[in-house]
From TrEMBL:
The keyword Transit peptide does not apply. Belongs to the class-III pyridoxal-phosphate-dependent aminotransferase family. This is Aspartate aminotransferase family protein. GO terms for molecular function: transaminase activity. It comes from the Bacteria. It comes from Roseateles flavus. Gene3D superfamilies: Aspartate Aminotransferase, domain 1 (3.90.1150.10), Type I PLP-dependent aspartate aminotransferase-like (Major domain) (3.40.640.10). SUPFAM superfamilies: PLP-dependent transferases. The keyword Oxidoreductase does not apply.
Length: 452
């Protein structure tokens, strides 16, 4: 076996990591993660780490689930791969399509498979434009997304997203994609009640539609809860008003469920928690609990009917659309979520416990705001609690806190000075307590470091 140092040297020499400052990484060396079980990871030095991010928002059923491992092994032996291009299909892809129709909201009975969330959102861009063209309205091209939203890293995915750092590289956004502000009360709405601000933020969509001309707008896309943007839980008034506006102007509503899907918010899908009825829904991550890559687009009957009856052949697809091994793992994963009753476990048990735990951190001198939704949570770190004044960004307080977490056996993510968690949905109540104690300890360590 190689030593940690040897792994790190080879990593630096050959592996370009996503979203990573490589000069910084080379100085410190990557942390080498070697195995995992349940909600814990172990690194090459033998440290045990509580994974409060479920990998990257995906390992909903936790690590080491034998049913998923067996499903992959069985399918690889029987038929590891076959495509769906030649008017061919495979049992696992058909079973998964059937199961998705069962667990998604009633307007959905069809799915288009991809390998990732980014590919799903790319598919949406082509699909909604093709939908409107099929209805004889090819001028409906514009898709509205949100600043700081994240919809992936492909050209269209990163364009739909509103991350300024991504738009600054590679000539984004692509034409026909525009953005409105996010429903981030703590940053943009503190003069108003949360409910009033929710309506204000939703009406930015209406203003944008009227500015462009409703006859040119194809769709609006959003994450029910903005995840990578910092777990921004919108006020309860926000999504119903967005739905009203989309209905009023006949604009397709796309829910990006890549993070919020498969139980994360305490319902099967985030749109159910937020009270919307999307026309299209993208998913990935939790569909296989991250054990194998898979994503897709749920297509509502309304959209599918037009595409099938008027759209002709949709010239779009991936080698791995409906990959049998990935689909077999997804079927096993969804059945496990059902058997373990994980959606109810989040809604009735650990979700409320996480909410109470985060609320109890509001007494901490560093914490300006806490928000949770199901098993997603955010802590906004501030310099001054009373006024909500932020720290100087140059201090990188979020990264400082993240380093204390890493050093003390906890993975939390920092988005600027917002600390976020999205732990596995299989967590027990004792494990939520264990995580909350670690979080408080790491906040205390961060506070002492900032004072010195
Ligand atoms: N959409 C959302 C909401 C996401 O959080 C992500 C990834 O984090 C994506 C899309 C992109 O998915 P992928 O990384 O599988 O391409």
């Amino acid at each position: 076996a190689r030593s940690t140092r040897q792994w790190q040297e080879a990593d630096s020499a050959h592996f370009m990591h996503p979203f990573t400052d490589h000069a910084g990484l080379a100085r410190k060396g990557a942390r080498i993660i070697t195995r995992a079980e349940n909600i814990y990871l172990w690194d090459s030095e033998g440290h045990k780490i509580l994974d409060a991010m479920s990998g990257l928002w995906c390992v909903n059923v936790g690590y080491g689930q034998q049913a998923l491992i067996d499903a992959a092994a069985r399918q690889m032996k029987e038929l590891p791969f076959y495509n769906a291009f030649f008017q061919t299909s495979t049992p696992p892809a058909i079973q998964l399509a059937e199961l998705l129709a069962e667990v998604t909201p009633p307007q959905f009975s069809k799915v288009f498979f991809t390998s990732s969330g980014s590919e799903g959102n790319d598919t949406v861009v082509r699909m909604v434009r093709h939908y409107w063209a099929s209805l004889g309205q090819p001028e409906r091209q514009v898709i509205i997304g949100r600043k700081n939203g994240y919809h992936g890293s492909t050209m269209a995915g990163a364009s739909l997203g509103g991350m300024s750092g991504m738009h600054a590289q590679g000539g984004l956004p692509i034409p026909g994609i525009v953005h409105i502000e996010q429903p981030h009360w703590f940053e943009l709405g503190r003069g108003q009640s949360r409910e009033d601000f929710g309506l204000t933020a939703a009406r930015w969509l209406e203003a944008k539609i009227l500015e462009i001309g409703p006859e040119k707008v194809a769709a609006f896309i959003g994450e029910p809860v903005q995840g990578a943007g910092g777990v921004i839980v919108p006020p309860s008034t926000y999504w119903p008003e967005i739905q009203r506006i989309c209905d009023r102007y006949g604009i397709l509503l796309v829910s990006d469920e890549v993070i919020c899907g498969f139980g994360r918010t305490g319902q099967w899908f985030g749109c159910e928690t937020m009270g919307t009825k999307p026309d299209l829904m993208t998913f990935a991550k939790g569909v296989t609990s991250g054990y194998i890559p898979l994503g897709g687009v749920m297509v509502s009957d309304k959209v599918a009917k037009v595409l099938i009856e008027q759209g002709g052949e949709f010239n779009h697809g991936f080698t791995y659309s409906g990959h049998p091994t990935a689909c077999a793992v997804a079927v096993a994963n969804i059945r496990l979520i059902q058997q373990l009753n994980l959606v109810n476990h989040v809604r009735q048990n650990i979700g409320p416990q996480l909410a109470a735990g985060f609320a109890s951190l509001e007494d901490h001198p560093l914490v300006g705001e806490t928000q949770t939704c199901g098993m997603m949570g955010a802590l906004q770190l501030v310099k001054d609690k009373a006024s909500g004044q932020p720290f100087d960004p140059a201090l990188e307080v979020g990264m400082l806190c993240r380093a204390h977490c890493f050093g003390n056996g906890l993975i939390m993510r920092a988005v600027g000075d917002r600390m976020i968690v999205a732990p596995p949905l299989v967590m027990s109540r004792d494990q939520v307590d264990e995580m909350m104690a670690l979080i408080r300890h790491c906040l205390d360590l961060s506070l002492s470091e900032l004072k010195t």
